[in-house]
Amino acid sequence: MVGREYGGPPPQPKPYGFVSVTRGKVPRQRPAGHDDFEADLVSGTITGVITALTPVHVASGQIELTGKREPPLVKAHVRVGDRPVIPGSSLKGSIRSIVEAISASCIRITRARRDQQPKEAVACQKLDQLCVACRMFGALGYQGQVRFSDAVLRGNRTEIIQVPPLYTPRLQARLYYEGGQIKGRKFYRHGKLAQGNVPVEVCPAGSCFDFSVQFDNLTPAELGLLLIALGQGESRLHPKLGGGKPACCGTVEIAVTELKVVDMATAYSQYDADMKDADVNTYLEAAKELVLSDQLRELAELLRYPSERECPNRNY
Length: 316
Ligand SMILES: [Zn+2]
Description:
This protein has one domain (about 1-300). The chain is about 15% helix and about 30% strand. It has helices at about 1-5, 90-100, 130-135, 220-230, 280-285, 295-300, and strands at about 15-20, 40-50, 60-65, 75, 80, 85, 145-150, 150-155, 160-165, 175-180, 180-190, 200, 210-220, 250-260, 275. Strands 2, 5, 6, 7, 8, 13, 14 and 15 form an 8-stranded antiparallel β-sheet that branches. Strands 1-11-10 form a 3-stranded antiparallel β-sheet. Strands 3-4 form a two-stranded antiparallel sheet. A hairpin with a 7-residue loop joins strand 3 and strand 4 (about 75). About 40% of the residues are buried. The model is unreliable at about 1-5 (pLDDT under 50). Zinc ion binds near residues 106, 108 and 130.
């Protein structure tokens, strides 16, 4: 109400919400490593397609000339060679944050004091005591068991649109505090794209990107957790990728087109093993032992799509 009294814009509903941090135990163990295939673990490749539901912009850090009068300059989308891509690191970061939120994982990125963090969820410290997200996606000194390719745009068509100023939240801002304690992990909701006055190069809604994820020595439950974070299963999560999340850029849908796993019957070594098709549902079922159902429900509600919500045209 203060804003109205002083003639400012009316308050807008916040474009984000929080998934509560688990109060429960964060199981930790030695990661499986990469050297040999283990009989009760799964290794293989997920192949998929990412479809942009709103424009996607991943900043290259370059400002480019458009050769036109309006706008003369534009923030360019990142490319590898001449192909626009969503970098594997960007995709991995987004999928990791979903896995962290829906499983009993540590709070990795924070400048919070130790006494502000739930005791169980303090960031993993020892390489032989890693939580599930650190085992899968890596920790300082450990490479992790999943590797994301860049997601490469089919065709080469980009557009220039005008969005509100893109704003990258500080690390601290990815968490929600209450009474000086970390209570939640922050996620931006989906909605109708906001207009602004900053010209950016985007991959427009409808763009398709091809990507793959290689994984080695995951438990069946960990592979299921990865597939849920990639939007498979009943919860059908729609991640957000790239910049302009508050303005509702970067809403995507992910389809898994192929899941191939190493056929252990033929796996004498990881260099000559045969691959076979596997059923996604088997692993979604196995994931139940790792998924926190309350947190998955909270996240599915936050990431609900489609959404008629208006997205704010200013910074958050
Ligand atoms: Zn951890």
